[in-house]
Write a structure and sequence with these properties.
By secondary structure, this protein is of the alpha/beta class. The chain has two domains: about 1-80 and about 155-235, 3-Layer(aba) Sandwich (Rossmann fold); about 90-155, no CATH class. The chain has helices spanning about 45-50, 75-80, 95-105, 115-125, 125-130, 140-150, 170-185, 195-205, 220-225, 230-235; strands spanning about 5-15, 20-30, 35, 60-65, 65-70, 80-85, 160, 190-195, 205-210, 215-220. Strands 6-7-8-3-9-10 form a six-stranded mixed sheet, sandwiched between helices. Strands 2-1-4-5 form a four-stranded antiparallel sheet, covered by helices on one side. Strand 1 and strand 2 (about 20-30) form a beta hairpin. It is globular. It binds adenosine-5'-diphosphate and magnesium ion. Magnesium ion (MG) binds near residues 45, 87, 162 and 163.
Length: about 250
């Protein structure tokens, strides 16, 4: 088998004296959708941000397309074709929708801005309607769409998303996951961090389960959906009903 596109080997990450990731091994092939699920505080965001170089792994290796990114700065990592959609979207609220999108083109320069913006407006018609609106006035779902569109403006090969469904209504969550499917169909590789295990595992080719900084389980999306431990802890199913106290 060929080497994975992105590979983490025995990655450890600390915040001061606190160790947030323990010996994480994870790989993503070109064109795959891989999800990382886990409870609040498990270290999901830390893992995603460690790939992007902030915080930096304290030991272990991060490889991308055969290049060692372990000591690279975030802007250098972006120039390898990796884009990040951070938790909480981090759009610029006082800039317009279109201005936010233009910022996403910085890793590749201005040559394709008009072409890519117009193309992304076909994927996100809501953003086109609101192109001159201040981003801070968008709904939560529209802000998430903008964060994704901004990342795509850099023509990334791989897109890392941190909980894109967070705080959104169920119908909007379904729209966001449909957009992720469309993006995968464009040939992009997707790494998706989610607490919403149900949607994430249905979308993903493969998944990993992170428990207090350690990868505890891995398998295809279908295998993990079927796994009793996963069902019990993350899907709210398969739980034995406790007898009522007398
Ligand atoms: N900047 C930070 N400084 C110190 N501890 C942090 C920092 N960010 C996260 N942590 C701790 O690291 C652990 C993992 O957090 P995080 O990666 O945000 O988890 P998740 O995204 O799964 O909710 C938690 O115990 C959290 O309190
Ligand atoms: Mg998080």
């Amino acid at each position: 088998m060929s080497q994975p596109l992105l590979e983490l080997r025995n990655v450890n990450t600390h915040y001061g004296a606190i160790q947030a990731l323990h010996d994480v091994n994870l790989s993503i092939d070109q064109g795959e959708i891989v999800t990382l699920i886990g409870a609040n505080g498990a270290g999901k965001s830390t893992l995603l941000m460690t790939i992007f170089g902030d915080p930096r792994a304290t030991s272990g290796q991060i490889l991308y397309n055969g290049a060692d990114l372990t000591r690279s700065a975030p802007y250098d990592i972006a120039s390898h074709g990796i884009a990040q959609v951070p938790e909480g979207r981090r759009i610029f609220p006082n800039m317009t929708v279109e201005e936010n999108m233009v910022i996403g083109s910085l890793p590749i320069g201005p040559d394709h801005v008009d072409e890519d913006r117009d193309y992304l407006f076909t994927l996100f018609p809501r953003l086109k309607e609101r192109r001159n609106q201040r981003a801070g006035t968008l709904s939560g779902g529209e802000q998430q769409m903008l964060a994704i569109a901004r990342a795509l403006m850099g023509r990334p090969q791989t897109i890392l998303l941190d909980e894109p469904s967070l705080g959104l209504a169920p119908m909007v969550v379904r729209q966001i996951f449909a957009i992720l499917r469309d993006i995968a169909d464009l040939g992009k590789t997707i790494f998706l961090v989610e607490q919403n295990a149900h949607h994430a595992l249905h979308l993903a080719d493969r998944g990993y389960v992170l428990v207090t900084g350690r990868i505890e389980l891995t398998g295809t999306g279908a295998e993990l959906l079927d796994n009793p431990q996963v069902r019990d802890a993350y899907l709210g199913q398969g739980r034995k009903r406790k007898p009522k106290p007398a």
